[in-house]
Write a structure and sequence with these properties.
0% strand, 13 helices, elongated, mainly alpha
Length: 209
């Protein structure tokens, strides 16, 4: 390991690692002149808390923000047994997007894969995750998973889906060219139809007893 190109502040962190008994592989990983001191500290904290060199290396990269590094480090600490880790190592994900992926860790992996994509904003990811958590079928949610849809369009479609519509009906509705106002109007009419249907069933029941 050579420290000739490291700044004095970077060297100070490496010296702290040496004093803590870090081995050569761990020190070499930290002694990267392209990392800022704050980034090196994210690696330092990982190693000091028991992460392996291989684990720390997945997030200790100059192009990753501190928040992203922290979120990946937290996955190793709290969600090590989940299968979401490969999904969050995409360099184009923000820390907020990673948080949404982490929130879906208890969902089936194929559900999370559907929205764990940088093309979705974190708010869009949230709408998709909430749909799956409400047990909306995959055959319906796949149409809502369209980054061209606004957050409000996704919200309306998610609520529409809760009424048990068919995949064919959702395919017709989940179109980016349909204005939010039109989806809201459809949802309003659907609620009226549902209420009237419940009233009708109640009336028929009363007539039969």
């Amino acid at each position: 390991m050579s420290d000739r190109q490291l700044s004095e502040d970077q060297k100070e962190i490496i010296e702290r690692g040496i004093d803590a008994g870090m081995n050569d592989d761990e020190l070499t990983l930290l002694a990267n002149k392209n990392l800022s001191c704050d980034q090196i500290m994210q690696g330092y904290y990982g190693i000091m808390c028991g992460l392996s060199v291989e684990e720390v290396a997945t997030y200790l990269k100059p192009e990753k923000s501190l928040d992203v590094m922290q979120q990946i480090r937290f996955i190793y600490f709290k969600q090590r047994g989940t299968k979401i880790l490969p999904l969050v190592l995409n360099d184009n994900l923000t820390s907020q997007q990673i948080i949404e992926i982490r929130k879906g860790a208890e969902l089936p992996l194929r559900y999370v894969k559907l929205y764990a994509d940088p093309c979705f904003s974190e708010k869009q990811m949230e709408q998709i995750r909430m749909g799956f958590e409400k047990h909306i079928p995959y055959s319906i949610m796949q149409f809502i998973c369209d980054p061209r849809l606004s957050i409000e369009q996704m919200r309306c479609l998610r609520e529409i889906a809760s009424f048990g519509i068919s995949p064919e009906e959702m395919r017709e509705l989940a179109q980016p060219d349909i204005p939010e106002e039109s989806m809201q109007f459809y949802l309003k009419k659907l609620k009226i139809r549902y209420r009237n249907n419940e009233k009708r069933k109640h009336m028929i029941y009363n007539l039969t007893i």
